[in-house]
Amino acid sequence: MTALIGRSRARGVETLSLDATDTRNALSAALVTGLADALADCGKDPEVRAVVLTHTGGTFSAGADLRDPPHPDALVGLLRQLVELPRPVVARVTGHVRAGGLGLLAACDITAAAGTATFAFTEVRIGVAPAVISLPIVPRADPRALARYYLTGERFDAAEAVRLGLLTTTADDVDAALAPILDGLRRSCPQALAETKRLLTARVLETFDRDAADLTALSARLFASDQAREGMTAFLGKRDAAWVV
Fold it and tell me: SUPFAM superfamilies recorded for this chain (predicted)?
C-alpha cells in the first residue's frame, strides 16, 4: 500500500483511489508504481471479485506528471495490467480527465462518470502525441470522433465520451448507476468473469503485442524534442506555446 493510493473493500469489491490531489492525480512515476502494486495485490487475492478505480479531489487524473513522468515502459505495463487483470475493473469518475488519464479509463472494463466530468486529449497542445495511451483507446473508440479530439485537444463532456466509446455510462449519481453493475459482478462466478474478460480484451491485447514497442519509442522521442520542451515550459508557465498563431 502506498500513500498515493487509497484502498478499501466492501463485499468483495476492492476500491483503489488515486490520492495525489496536490498534483491533480497526475501520473507520476510514484503513482504509476503504487497503482501497479495495488492491482497486483488484487489480482492475487481470491477474495477480490472486482476492482473499482476512482479518485479523490476534482480531477480523476490530469495526465502525465510533467515534473516526474513515468517511463513509457512503466505506463505501458500499467495499462496492460489493467487490461489483463483477472478481475473486472470498473472506473468511477466524478471529476475531470485529461491525456494519460483517458488511457486509464480505456484500459478499464466498465466506466462511469458524472455528467459534470470533462475530458480532453491535451498532448498535441504541449508538443507530444497520445502515443502509449492509444494502445487501449484505439481498439475501443470511434475512429472519426477520436480523430477530432486527438488532433485538436478540445474539451468534451461525458455524453460525448459515451458516444466515443470511452465511457460505458454517465449519470448525475454515479454511485447509483454503478450499484446494479457491482451487484451483477458480485453475483457472477469468478472463473466465468475472468474468462469472459479474456474474450472481451483479446483484440486490445493484440494491439499491445503489435504496437507497444513502436509507441513507447515514439513517446520517448517526442518528450525529448525541442518542441515538447517548449510546450511543457509554456504549460507550466501558463502561457501560450511559441507555435500558437
Answer: ClpP/crotonase (SSF52096)
Largest CA distance in the chain: 56
The DSSP letter of residue 72 is: H
∠ CA 69-75-77, nearest 5°, is 150
Q: How many CA atoms lie within 13 A of 220 on its CB side?
A: 12
Domain 1-173+189-245 sits in CATH at 3.90.226.10
Query: Whose grid coordinates read 506555446?
Result: 241
Domain boundaries, the chain: 1-173+189-245
d(CA 180, CA 92): 14
The secondary structure element, H or E, covering residue 112 is strand 110-114
pLDDT digits (tens, 9 = 90+) for 212-237: 999 999 999 999 999 999 999 999 99
Threshold 0.85, pTM exceeds: yes
- The three cell numbers locating residue 38: 495495488
109 vs 139: CA distance, rounded Å: 13
- 61-95 b/e with 16+ CB inside 10 Å = b? bbbbbbeebbebebbbbbbbbbbbbebbbbbbbbb
Q: Which of 129, 128, 156 has its CA nearest to residue 142? A: 156
Q: How far apart are CA 33 and CA 73, in angstroms?
A: 12
pLDDT tens digits, 130-174: 999 999 999 999 999 999 999 999 999 999 999 999 999 999 999
